[in-house]
Specification:
The complex is a heterodimer. Chain A is mainly β. Helices cover 0% and strands 52% of the residues of chain A. Helices cover 0% and strands 50% of the residues of chain B. Classes of the chains: A mainly beta, B mainly beta.
Chain lengths: 123, 107
């Protein structure tokens, strides 16, 4: 079955960096676009970034553009989110999520989610 | 960006009730809308996509309708497991955006 497991979260000071990872199993990782979605404590869901299955396309939310970078290593079934210049408002649970369009770049929803990892930005 | 607005923000209901949650988009999104259920401390779970298509394994008491700018999620007969927060999400264009959520509480 599809499994997505995030790691790399924790407490970090404002202005510092952190890299999140998401390891995928149970499906052909290299065939699916992948997303990061976050949720601040007690708040709603907020889309962060997407990377196409072949790494040719990446999009970001305006709130993280220029600070966050999404990448993937298809040989390792891993998705990454490099987060630089972190701010208090980046404090959230970060989820990786799969786009169900196999080898496509079309509008899609999220059919599988990881359990989430907490990132706390605080001095 | 496309803004998504859900109503109500909170809904109190009893087991067996029929409930409806509304989601409005700030511009037409055709049928590019999904609904998710989220329970405390858990990841969201996909319920419906393309406005009205039920995800595999989701009980048939859940249904979705609408197109353009107005959409609804209906639960025909509430079960104890359905008390959760529900989100709509548009995937017509980036940045993908979510509604603010509707918390379904036990009356």
């Amino acid at each position: 079955q599809v499994q997505l497991v995030e790691s790399g979260g924790g407490v970090v000071q404002p202005g510092r960096s952190l890299r999140l990872s998401c390891v995928a199993s149970g499906f052909t990782f290299s065939s699916y676009a992948m997303h990061w979605v976050r949720q601040a404590p007690g708040k709603g869901l907020d889309w962060v970034a997407v990377i196409s299955y072949d790494v040719s396309k990446k999009y970001y939310a305006d709130s993280v553009k220029g600070r966050f970078t999404v990448s993937r290593d298809n040989s390792k079934n891993k998705l990454y989110l490099q987060m630089n210049s972190l701010r208090g408002e980046d404090t959230a649970v970060y989820y990786c999520a799969r786009d169900p369009g196999e080898r496509q770049w079309e509008p899609y929803y999220f059919d599988h989610w990881g359990q989430g990892i907490l990132v706390t930005v605080s001095s | 960006d496309i803004q998504m607005t859900q109503s109500p923000s909170t809904l109190s209901a009893s087991v067996g009730d029929r409930v409806t949650i509304t989601c409005r988009a700030s511009q037409s999104i055709s049928s590019w809308l999904a609904w998710y259920q989220q329970k405390p401390g858990k990841a969201p779970k996909l319920l419906i996509y393309k406005a009205s298509t039920l995800e595999s394994g989701v009980p048939s008491r859940f249904s979705g309708s609408g197109s353009g700018t107005e959409f609804t999620l209906t639960i025909s007969s509430l079960q104890p497991d359905d008390f959760a927060t529900y989100y709509c999400q548009q995937y017509k264009s980036y940045p993908y955006t979510f509604g603010q959520g509707t918390k379904l509480e036990i009356k």
